[in-house]
Amino acid sequence: MERATQDETALELLVHGVGGTTPEEMLGDPRTVRISGDNTAAVFRRTEDADAEQRPDDYRGKPVPEAYVWCNLTSGNGSRALWLLLLPFMVVNLAHWMRPTSRHRRPLVRTYGLLVRLTGLTLTVLLVAAACEVALDLTAWQCAGTPRCAADRAWLGFLATDDAGRGGWWSQPGRRLALAALLPAALTGLLWYLSHRTWSAYESQQPLPHKPEVEEEEATRTALSRPGFWYGRRLVARLRAAHTAAGLLTVAAAVGASAARHDRRPGGPALLDILGWALVMTLVLGGGAVVWVVCRRGRSEHKLDRKLDRALVRGLPLAALALLVLTFLYAGWTRPGWRSEGRLPGDATFGGIAIAQGLLVVALAVVAHSLYRTSPDARTAIRGLGGPAVAMLSCALGGVMSGGGAQRVADWLDGTHGSIDGPPVLLTWQASVIPPLLVVVAVLCAWLGLRTLQRKRREMTKVTLDYPGEPKDSARTRRIAGTRARAALTDRAPLLVGIISAVTLLFGAGALIGAWLTEKVPAQAAQGAPDVVEGAGETSQALGSWLIGFGFILFVTWGRRAYKDASARRTIGILWDVGTFWPRAAHPFAPPCYAERAVPDLTWRMAAWTRATSATGGRLVISGHSQGSVLAAAAAWQLRPSVRRRVALLTYGSPLERLYGRWFPAHFGPAALTSLHREVDCWRNLHRPTDPIGGPINLRGACGPQVDRAALKDPLAYGRTETHPLPAPIHGHGGYQADPAFAEERARLLARLKAVVPSPRPAAPEAVTPAPADPPDTAG
């Protein structure tokens, strides 16, 4: 005999959005208690609801509210401020997940992932090479080898040489380079440690075990439902070993290449010449092994892969470290008459990295376009080229950070003396293209500003129609219309990103060609040209040098401020809320993925509740705001189909379609969202025209004509009324709970919990095509 679910205890699970909040605010009660979880992420209840399961009679007809608080995953202690320096790694990791939706093109899908992983590898080499440029070239080679520069730096005294080329034991160039190489080697070790530690702290949670569902066409089922999607331990460990080895090999190449080049000169010791060639060949073999490891294996999502390639994970970094130590011994060998002159071969290094990144981005664009053509969708960002565009921006960010650091250190060491040659010519050329790039950005911003003003004028008419019969206030109308117009700028982001990425690629190629053809900095290359060209070259070089240095200082300043200031750290946490949702699939040194902790937490909680109340067909409503709605959807996909049918979704301020659906179509595209709303019990979504992040889902639902409710008014009242005697605020992305529509939709979903088990789906309206039947439950 069937039993009505009003006799059971229902559950309402609340998930907050970006920026986080407190359980007291989420539950509307100052007295809360943690019922599960730890100091990082936990589920809370009101104190009076702590033992609700033991008092079912008190909760007949009403749910037990719970709040899942996960803000400490992204904006906790001050050490999180260091994550800001890992921004290029985070951005290239995003590019991996921006793959377009494809049908039956698995080789291209694997090629896409491979190209992004190789791009991430070049970023690691670029960062370590920049550290080598600062420590080895500018400090140990140029400044310590120039008496005038070293005289102003007392801490370089033990490394310095005099005008006759004599000095202490450490003054020989090879020994100076070996000692200075400890800094980039330590940086590589720090990145390895952070990646390993954050994996243990954030991403080691095993998802809810379940069997893979019946395989459907890739276009109709998202990979987020696969058992191993949120457990990428094996790939992260392999990539961490490969990137650590790549960093150590880069340091070894920077130290050993200069010594080997000196030993190849006529009259040098034959033994050292042989050792130099052996070192170079070993470095080449080591680099080939690193590339092989990166290419060999991608993500394994169809099963929960608990294996770990221990021999590779431990052996590859240790072998690279042993080679680095041998390189130190080789470089430290006594070489009479060896003096440091000019620069280390940094132009060839940075030039090779720039060429590799450019070719990888172009190849990635070709593959992405081919994938997009198999299943085109007008809503996809940049027509499927979002991934290549974002990968290009990650390379640009890496260039700004590496070039800015080198430029600032060179200015600090040299001052106004001009006694050292400074950073490589290519870095100066790259800095010189920043001013024209900023001009392009300024033109785009001006165009967007003009379009925003035009939209604001149109919105002023709509505001008047939305609030009829009220005395009009031009200032109030402009404020509301301006908020709506600015919120619409989010939909212009793909165009902005696409143009900036394309211009960056062109300017970067121009800088590379200019550096290789002239072998001079722009100001010197423009000498003898017309006055306008010469002045432009000098201005661009000076302004670019200042801007790239300023950009690096800005990164450091933000990190320092966030370390000391909790509010600034919270702001950075909001950035990570959006950027680190995805697992580390392309770069192991990216900031950790909080969803690999949050999604299993939510999945386990929902599965445990439905299992405990399975006798009465236990149901629940999961209510997600902003990024919390993305976590809620990801957790629902991880449930068994039989459990998923007992879950109702309430999303508000949700970026599921507006941001994730456009930028990550393979995982949140129309087909994936359609399958989700067919498989859950019900889904309702709230949005506002003043919200810059959330938007409509644009799907028809089984519990109403559409998943979306009509756009909510914001503010609730135009002027003063009896209901709103004081001016109503413009909430934008927040404050959805203050709208009566929120309470209506919440009550509507909770009322469905009182239906007889199993809950029949209401008949679809005549104008709506009935949804296909639920897929068979093969998860056990």
UniProtKB/TrEMBL annotation:
Coiled coil segments of this chain? none
Which stretches does UniProt call biased (Low complexity)?
764-780
Among SUPFAM superfamilies, the record links this protein to: alpha/beta-Hydrolases
Arranged from A to Z, the UniProt key words for this protein are: Membrane, Transmembrane, Transmembrane helix
Region ranges (Disordered): 758-780
Residues that span the membrane, as ranges: 111-131, 177-194, 241-262, 274-295, 316-333, 353-372, 384-406, 426-450, 493-517, 543-560
Query: What name does this protein carry?
Result: Lipase family protein
Q: Which organism is this protein's natural source? A: Streptomyces alboniger
